[in-house]
Specification:
By secondary structure, the chain is an alpha/beta fold. The protein has a single domain, classed as HAD superfamily/HAD-like (Rossmann fold, 3-Layer(aba) Sandwich), CATH 3.40.50. Strands 3-2-1-4-5-6 form a 6-stranded parallel beta sheet, sandwiched between helices. Helix 1 links the parallel strand 1 and strand 2. Helix 1 packs parallel to helix 7. The radius of gyration is 16 Å and the shape is globular.
Length: 207
Amino acid sequence: MVEIYWGEDPMSAPNYVAPKCVIGLDRDGVINVDRGTYTWKGIDFEPIQGSLEAVAKLRRLGYKIAIITNQGGIEKGLFTEEDVDTLHTYMLELLGKAGCPSIDAIYYSASSRKDDPFAKPNTGMFKRCEKENKSKGIKFNQGYYVGDKISDLKAAHRIGATPILVRTGYGVETEKDLNKFAYREIKKRTKVFDTLLDFALYLEDKV
């Protein structure tokens, strides 16, 4: 888990608790461009247009923010947990510059194996996030989870969050897959947006 705060903004205080529900975010394909391979170096981290501003907007609207991502390259020996932490520090610096005063947590799995309870579509990371952030009132069954893959939507469905599909990353292909009979229940609950920024604007309009 990573907690990062910036500056003198009241939302930067360590004891700040965002008043609204949690919005969980996948990383690759939602916040940054999915290169079709692993992203673990800052030089390869390319924010999707408007994504950093979207996270800042969601935070300013009062939502709790938790980034939850599979990083299966760790188990494969392609990079280390320290590499991922370094990249996330860089990502959080970019978020700070984009006007996001704080986020609540980052969780990542070291594998993408189906039998790993912490790898999506399993819900181990979500449950750990809830357990370790009880004081912040993080409950995914009251919030949303944004992703671009079927595994993201499955995880959201299983933990009780509202699944949000964005058409960035693998989202266009995933939207087609949602028409399969096996995903009929997930499709009923899923809302679809072009980008993370479009989702943030949708929530802003609801205020």
